[in-house]
Write a structure and sequence with these properties.
Layout (H helix, E strand, L loop, with lengths): L26 H17 L2 H20 L10 H31 L2 H6 L5 H29 L8 H25 L2 H18 L11 H7 L3 H13 L7 H21 L4
Helix pairs in contact: 1-5, 2-3, 2-5, 3-5, 3-6, 3-7, 3-9, 6-9, 6-10, 9-10
């Protein structure tokens, strides 16, 4: 007679480890999360959209489709599109960032963010990524409208990217410097005033050769003028790495970022 061996009892399941494991989220994830928040805050803000998208598109369409301005020989949109791209960079990296950061500082938002696990360097990185993301959106919209108006760009795309990055650095540095040293109301007024002045005299929609020679030499040293002129040299005339605009932007970027790092106050 055959006997059946006794069944082996099943092993008991391992006990779940429910003990807490505190620890901060990895820094890159924190930066990307904050950058996403910054980006959503911009695109949901009607005033920011007016500044960053609607005004540049309206100026591009209006002056390309009409003869209100004497833009010299050549197609009007070929002159205007690079200048409007430069204006878009300034509106986001300087004007929008200065105003937004200034009011965050006033209401204690920056102070509270400084007390979170996200380090202050991470906060700056998140704001920078948000600015770049908004600029990409602006570039897509502006270029799409310009192409619909008959724009035919050509030139080295790497030169365009370098110019845009240097312009972003230059305008961001001075935007953060303004936001970190002035009261929020003063930042609001000053940033909008600078925006209007540079729009008028920075070669964005008005050619600099319409100004007297001595004045033109000074205006060419402005960051908006250097960015607009550099983009025109590449996209309109096919140049690669235009020397003077790149040098002017590099000097402004170094000065602005150094001054912002030295004098920015978080509270």
């Amino acid at each position: 007679m055959t006997t059946t061996p006794a069944a082996t009892p099943a092993a008991a399941p391992a006990a779940l480890d429910l003990s807490p494991a505190p620890g901060a989220v990895p820094l890159p994830r924190m930066i990307m999360s904050q950058a996403g928040y910054e980006f959503r805050a911009v695109v949901r803000n009607g005033e920011q959209l007016l500044l960053t998208l609607i005004i540049p598109v309206v100026l591009l369409t209006l002056f390309s489709a009409t003869s209100l301005l004497d833009l010299g020989a050549g197609r009007r949109v070929d002159f205007l599109a690079p200048g409007i791209l430069a204006l878009a960079v300034m509106s986001t990296a300087f004007t929008g960032q200065a105003i937004g950061t200034g009011f965050e500082r006033r209401y204690g938002v920056l102070k509270r963010l400084g007390a979170t696990p996200l380090p202050r360097g991470g906060l700056i990185a998140a704001k920078t990524l948000s600015v770049v993301a908004v600029e990409i959106l602006q570039a897509v919209v502006v270029c799409a409208v310009a192409l619909a108006l008959g724009w035919h760009p050509h030139g080295d795309p790497v030169s365009v990217v370098v110019l845009l990055l240097l312009g972003t650095a230059a305008f961001s540095g001075f935007g953060l410097l303004m936001a970190g040293t002035l009261r929020a109301e003063a930042t609001l007024a000053a940033a909008n005033l600078v925006y209007i002045l540079l729009l008028a005299v920075g070669g964005v929609v008005f050619p600099l050769d319409k100004f007297p020679g001595a004045v033109r030499d000074v205006l060419e040293l402005l960051p908006i003028s250097a960015l607009a002129d550099g983009l025109r040299q590449v996209l309109q005339h096919g140049a690669a790495f235009p020397g003077k605009p790149l040098l002017v932007l590099a000097v402004w970027a170094a000065a602005g970022l150094a001054l912002a790092a030295r004098f920015f106050r978080w509270e």
